[in-house]
Amino acid sequence: MSGHSKWSSIKHQKGVADARRGQLFTKLTREIIVAVREGGASPETNFRLRLAIQKARDSSMPSDNIERAIKRGSGELGGATLTEMTLEGYGPGGVAIMVRALSDNRNRTIQDVRNIFTRGGGSLGESGCVAWIFDLKGIITVSTGELDAEELSLQAIDAGAEDVVTGSDYVDIYTKPDELEMVRKALEAQKVPIASAEQSLIAKTTLKLEEKEALQTLKLLDKLEGLDEVQQVSSNVDFDDDVVEKYNSAG
User: Fold this and answer.
1) What is the sign, positive or negative, of the torsion defined by CA atoms of 35, 40, 43, 48?
2) Structural domains of the chain ordered from first start
């Protein structure tokens, strides 16, 4: 699971620049719209919508934006039809990469993703080529700050977490997909400050790369996440700390 943890670390450290906040809100809006169309506009009865709304709030998305997204999903406001899609491919050194997207133009999104893979030293694969490497998990991230990471890990396990990975300034808590909300609420009841919580594909086993290929892969993952239509990117790489630091410094 450390592969996800290191990739999370990069995103935590980079933060959300103002230039990308608008793009983030676009992705969050799409997630809410699709959740509403799939399960209805009531968060009480729509688990996916509850997660999407909470994720939007975690990212400081204004309440008005959230309400508009719900209305668009329910048909009260106009909007293009979004198609949910999962694309699979290989990065440098044979890295397995999963890309989840929500798009109003499937062919354009596939071509954009294919181009990024090709330019990044990888290739887009057939459906199912790497999906078997990943499991869906719930992930709760806590910025540790003044918190005791060891104590937090024990709290997480007591709350029902399956695993905990500790970084330099954060802790990633892994749960079963359907227990994400339960574990989050248990931690919040103990005043644990949650930075984010989501469901994500996590590699069952991870791969180590030489520095050059690892840096190439980090750039490829960043480029993929930079597409408006891409909601989430997962890989099976376990990045070394010094490579992560080098990439952050270069960015």
Assistant:
1) negative
2) 10-74 (1.10.10.200), 86-132+205-238 (3.30.70.980), 134-203 (3.30.70.980)
